[in-house]
Specification:
about 160 residues, mainly alpha, 5 helices, single chain
């Protein structure tokens, strides 16, 4: 490195100078640190909110599922009564009743609370694996997967 007069100087002898780059870099670093701190604070608040709201929402979803189940039972009973009153052969009537019952059993199985929990569990695992970026989906083997993992531990994994 050469100074203004053309003399050769070692790099260790050159004092650091403030340049135009520093006017751009320093504010960017400060902004990035502020955003990082803000996001960590938002995520920590979100952890606490979700830890309390999530179980409450799971309990509240039982009401519509129960209402749908009761409504479906009523519709099935109504349709069986209508089929009983229609002028058709006994074999056709039994086939119709069996078809209505079979469809309702399938539908009831798919709107049950267990089906809802199962779908929610798989969505949660998919989200967890997507955010963390490792492991097989769906989980393999008995007891595989993040069993007992709470929402807060998922979000906490993002912060660390």
């Amino acid at each position: 490195m050469h100074d203004e007069l053309g003399n050769e100087r070692h790099i260790a002898e050159c004092p650091p100078r403030v340049g135009v780059e520093d006017l751009v870099i320093v504010p960017m670093v400060v902004i990035a640190l502020a955003i990082s701190k803000l996001l960590k604070a938002v995520f920590s608040i979100l952890i606490y909110v979700l830890d309390y709201a999530f179980p409450i929402l799971l309990q509240l979803i039982r009401i519509p599922l129960l209402a749908g189940r009761l409504l479906g039972d009523g519709i099935e009973l109504f349709l069986e009564g209508v089929v009983r009153c229609l002028p058709m052969s006994r074999a056709k009537r039994e086939a119709w009743r069996a078809r209505v019952r079979q469809q309702w059993i399938w539908f009831r199985r798919n709107i049950s609370y267990q089906a809802f929990e199962h779908a929610l569990h798989h969505a949660y695992l998919f989200l967890f694996i997507f955010l963390i970026g490792s492991g097989p989906y769906p989980p393999e083997g008995p007891g595989a997967g993040p069993v007992g993992v709470s929402v807060s531990s998922c979000l906490l994994a993002l912060l660390v």
